[in-house]
Amino acid sequence: MTDANTPAARTVRLEAEGKSLNMPLVEGTEAELGIDIAKLRSSLGMITLDPGFGNSGACRSAVTFIDGDLGILRYRGYPIEELAERSTFLEVAWLLIHGELPTKAELDGFANSVTHHTMLNENFGRFFEGLPTDAHPMPACAAAIGALATFYQQPETEQNVRDTVTRLIAKMPTIAAYSYKHSVGQPFMYPKNQLDYCQNFFYMMFGTPCEDFVVDPVLARAVDLLFILHADHEQNCSTSTVRVVGSSRANLFASISAGISALWGPLHGGANQQVIEMLDHIEAEGGDVARFVEDAKSKKGSSRLMGFGHRVYKNFDPRASILKKSCGEVLNKLGIQSRQLEIAIKLEETALKDDYFISHKLYPNVDFYSGIIYKALGIPINMFTVMFAIGRLPGWIAHWLEMRKDPDTRIVRPRQIYTGATKRPYVPMNKRG
Ligand code: ACO
To answer: What residue owns the CA closest to ligand 1's atom 22?
Structure first.
């Protein structure tokens, strides 16, 4: 696994409790350094303690590079700014999964396969009928993706995994749209093969059998951009979940379903919904941005500034910068005046001048502006995190495939520092209390 035994290897020496250990330094292609602690427990009888894993690398990965201090994000070496400007979501999905940008033939072939796998088994209609009518689309999606595993139970050969990848990317927008249609009591719309990925999603979401539905290309491109920006973010909470579940050799459907559940949390993908709720709240309270910022600083209740702060970015989130610009453009093109955007800009300006936010290195993250765009595009608020999940899917898949091929992969099974009671005798019922 490491080059610890070669003479040139750089090491870190740890001395503790009268014992010592030389641990190899591991260097990534961007000169990131890590300490390989694989021998720590067997040599010193100790483990590391790192709640939230802020200092722990779980794997080597060649998918995405982030430099949080410099605000750099690259998929497979390509800067996010260039991909956002020049690429499409399906092209980015291929890049993440295969490691290289596709040739024209590869991209056409991929788009064609995806298009021809978008339909769901008819039994899915009954699956959705079993859910309450007001079912939140996010757990509905997680359940439906997990349920796909019951329709495709073939052994895990390379070809079958490739088919699963295509099916997931193809069926995710259909499942997302069906989850929404179920929640509003409208008939499911079958996918249309003449539409591209994002157009088809809009059609399945907002079309009805009663009339023709024409998708505005401005909306489709805006969603394509959002999907690109969401497509991967290295070892974030949901991607780590996908890797952890997959490390037990659970199949790709089950692993992705777990990733969707992890993404739902308000500190992760659920933040975009919380941002809109926060902006609505500020507006309802008379638009007093300064007071809201003061509340967030005072840590009263749960009044964090949603859409602000990031575990990795401590300078700016490059995705937020791209979205801020795109947000203005999309609203302009659609001719929408957004009070929420005005409040968001004021909130950002106020927070960025504030000592608390400066000293805590808290900047707008990708979720700060994505909710405003989704709202302008007519996406219902409970679908925001589902949109994030559609975008993040290729990243989850790329990491799952990488994890499965990595010879260092072992089932994920962290250790703990036990803090409970020490050994004590059983207390009979009549002696308790
Ligand atoms: N508003 C106010 N204070 C904040 C915020 C915020 N949004 N975020 C962090 N802080 C403060 C904390 O109170 C803490 O202060 P202290 O050191 O004085 O106690 C300090 O900054 C560090 O915060 P942690 O929660 O320890 O930082 P962590 O790296 O664990 O959390 C997170 C990062 C979860 C993103 C956090 O910044 C947060 O809750 N942000 C709001 C939710 C959000 O926007 N999530 C989306 C993230 S992006 C994504 O998942 C796509």
So the answer is: 360
